[in-house]
UniProtKB/TrEMBL annotation:
It is a multi-pass membrane protein. The lineage of its organism: Eukaryota, Fungi, Dikarya, Ascomycota, Saccharomycotina. It comes from Komagataella pastoris (Yeast). Its EC number is 1.14.19.17. SMART domains: Lipid_DES. This is Sphingolipid delta(4)-desaturase. It catalyses: an N-acylsphinganine + 2 Fe(II)-[cytochrome b5] + O2 + 2 H(+) = an N-acylsphing-4-enine + 2 Fe(III)-[cytochrome b5] + 2 H2O. The chain crosses the membrane at residues 63-79, 91-109, 121-140, 168-190, 202-221. One of its GO terms (molecular function) is sphingolipid delta-4 desaturase activity. Belongs to the fatty acid desaturase type 1 family. DEGS subfamily. Pfam families: FA_desaturase, Lipid_DES. Keywords: Lipid metabolism, Membrane, Oxidoreductase, Sphingolipid metabolism, Transmembrane, Transmembrane helix. GO terms for biological process: ceramide biosynthetic process. Pathway: Lipid metabolism; sphingolipid metabolism.
């Protein structure tokens, strides 16, 4: 029996009996231990109580997000007579459009935590506005699924950020991982609906209606090419694009342990931060350990949180490049779709629109 101690939290571990390097593990990293974020949150608040004052909405969010939305709609209209497959069209969609739409995706992420307005309804309605450049309705469904991801991190059913066993089995090859990295936007869009059910609400219907009307107006005032610009921007944002590296970087194990005994060993770190320049375009989503520890601290204050609690965050492994994350994910034979920490789910799999179990 080996005892590990970190920040006054003690774990007892039974070492695996096999000594040799077993190579890639074709199984998820199962554990019954609680996720580390709630534990670290309590420790940080005990040592740095001033962190609690960082929680709350950021007033600048609505202005920055609106500027990005208007930029995308302006470019979409400007490309109304440009051939979709032309270099100009594709280059703008990849360089500007994908970066802007990633910004929209992640602004909706901020809004799902009610970090632009104090009233939750205002955040939901504003998220529908930010959804417009994405081209398809997204914001209303994202919030309940994302809240489940936070509340039940690693849960085999309730955390729809996890790949399914079928995905892990079929895609844990070089070509499979390349396919996933290229088309991951579709996996994140379709997987939640196939794994966990949520209640439909008026906000969902409003999201669909507003998005449909916006698309039709854009086609009427511009052309179908204008809508194609938004759709391609969304696709590139969730494909082989530098900012898309955050999808993989946040929770995949890119340096998996060589030995792991299911349900016995201390699970490997399951959340990773990135502190590079791409955070400027992505609402500081790279500060991901910080975000999971304190999901009600807005993007603008996450760097301050890290500074205050540097004694907790400095020792944690981190990524230095989202592009490198994508490359390593695809080409490293030790990195598989299985490289996620997983927990057994609760028996009740019915979830309401607020992200809580019925």
């Amino acid at each position: 029996m080996i005892t590990h101690r970190s920040n006054n939290v003690q774990y007892e571990v039974t070492p695996p009996s096999v000594e040799e390097d077993l190579g890639p593990q074709f199984e998820f990293y199962w554990t019954r231990q609680k996720d580390p974020h709630s534990i670290r949150r309590k420790l940080i608040l005990a040592k740095h109580p001033e962190v609690a004052k960082l929680c709350g909405p950021e007033w600048r969010t609505k202005y920055i997000a609106s500027a990005v939305v208007l930029l995308q709609l302006f470019i979409a209209y400007g490309l109304r007579n440009t051939t979709v497959l032309s270099f100009k069209f594709l280059a703008l969609a990849y360089v500007v459009g994908a970066t802007a739409n990633q910004n929209c995706f992640l602004c909706i992420h901020e809004l799902s935590h009610n970090l632009a307005f104090r009233k939750p309804l205002y955040n939901k309605l504003f998220a529908i506005w930010v959804n417009l450049p994405i081209g398809v309705p997204y914001s209303a469904s994202f919030q309940p699924y994302h809240q489940l991801h936070h509340k039940f991190l690693g849960d085999e059913v309730l955390d729809t950020d996890l790949p399914t066993p079928l995905e892990a089995t079929v895609l844990s090859t070089l070509l499979g991982k390349a396919f996933f990295a290229t088309f991951q936007i579709f996996f994140y869009a379709l997987r939640p609906m196939m794994v966990t059910s949520i209640d439909m609400t008026f906000i969902h219907l409003l999201n669909v209606l507003v998005c449909l009307v916006s698309d039709l107006v854009l086609i009427k005032l511009g052309s179908a090419n204008s809508l194609w610009y938004l759709i391609l921007s969304s696709f590139f944002a969730g494909s082989l694009h530098p900012t898309a590296g955050h999808f993989i970087a946040e929770h995949y194990l890119l340096d998996p342990p060589k030995h792991y005994t299911q349900f016995q060993d201390v699970p490997p770190l399951e959340t990773y931060s990135y502190y590079g320049t791409l955070n400027f375009f992505t609402w500081n989503v790279g500060y991901h350990n910080e975000h999971h520890d304190f999901p009600f601290i807005a993007w603008s204050k996450l760097p301050l949180l890290r500074t205050i609690a540097d004694d907790f965050y400095q020792p944690l492994p981190k990524h230095t490049s989202w592009v490198r994350v994508i490359v390593d994910f695809i080409f490293d034979e030790n990195v598989l779709m299985y490289n996620r920490v997983k927990r057994e789910t609760a028996k009740d799999k019915s979830i309401n629109s607020k992200g809580t179990k019925n």
